[in-house]
Amino acid sequence: MSNKATPLNNPAAGPSITASYVDWFRHSSPYIKLHRGKTFVLMMPGDVLKHDNFSGIVHDIALLNSLGVKLVLVHGARPQIDARLAQNNHTSEFHQHLRITDETSMTAITQAVGEIRIQIEAALSTGLPNSPMHGAHLQAVSGNFVTAKPCGVIDGIDFQHTGEVRRVDTRAIRAALDSDALVIVSPLGYSPTGEIFNLSFADVATEVARTLKADKLVGFVDGDGILDNNGELVRQLNLAECSKQLNHLAQQPAHGLRQSLKACYKACSGGVSRASMVNYRSDGAFLSELFTRDGCGTMVYSDDYEQLRRATIDDVGGILELLEPLEEQGVLVRRSRERLETEIDRFWVMDKDGAAIACAALYPFTESFVELACVATQKDYQGGGRAAKLLRQLEIEARRQGHSKLFVLTTQTAHWFIEQGFADADLDDLPSERQSLYNYQRNSKIFVKPL
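User: That's the sequence. What structure does it adopt?
Assistant: Structure tokens below.
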């Protein structure tokens, strides 16, 4: 959100703008319900506080809090620390992107971190009339939530007051979150003997997310996320794909992006189901990532016990077993093994221990239209949302291929498709090629969903 007037309170806004706003708000309602009561850890580098969009991000944080999302904000301080050290004509040495913290550096670090925490608390406390923060009354809580230990000597280098996370006081953080407060965690840790250690804010965010069993980790980065070889945004990565990207980024100069992606990878490997990277320079990117279907950043997701993947020739037998009961009942049109083998690249499967327990396929007809077919789930696994998960994946794939409309023909599962956002359609709404293939004896109902 920004300070700009919304279409609903701007007298100059036309009907089309107002309708667009209302349509967006209505489509965000499932995500509002989904996120309510969930715990998000926000990983905010020190660069964010120096950017003009910081106030917009604060407004978005206040909105999430008002919607019942439990928030932990872990902030960095590298540019502020560097500025402090420069004032004292002192510079830090780094090894493996980790600051070697001597006594002089530690003094500058504690001062910079303290100023940042106060700056964040002040920003969260604003409540001017005619601003997004009006009436927010957001309570921010900070404290000694992180116990740390020294890094010690690595590669023959003594890191002195640089430490690593030993323990996170999840009970104290949970108590604050349960009181509807936002928790601020700084990149400092304390030892049982009273020592202070300088920590990597990304490591702190990862450990907080992992030990809290957070629902999502969000990393703010300078850029939209991970780009492919064609410069296109990669919207989602599983853990295996994320690992490959990390290896690729190791050869690139963009340390901040790799640091954020590594945190996403470690969090998801440690039990967090989703982690996202969003552009802190882009106003509204944070909300768009959370409240729109496609988001606007890169999401990393943990590998499920049941894996969703493209079908291979080895899956033909399993897919035939899934389709056969429905073919016998007349729900699906029978497909031969030979036909299935030639069309296997159109199928996706839900795999459990190497066996296909659900499947679905895409058949493109025109540049705009693509048909969803062969949606089937093994009887023992029905009712667990697997078909809906397959549908979401195929919608992503259809959009990636450039299609704008997904249609389906069904005789017995009309209500399920309506629940998934499909709408009634007529035969004339389909591409002419598909119209000519329509089986009037089956009298299938037709549904279309815009992508």
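The chain is about 40% helix and 25% strand.
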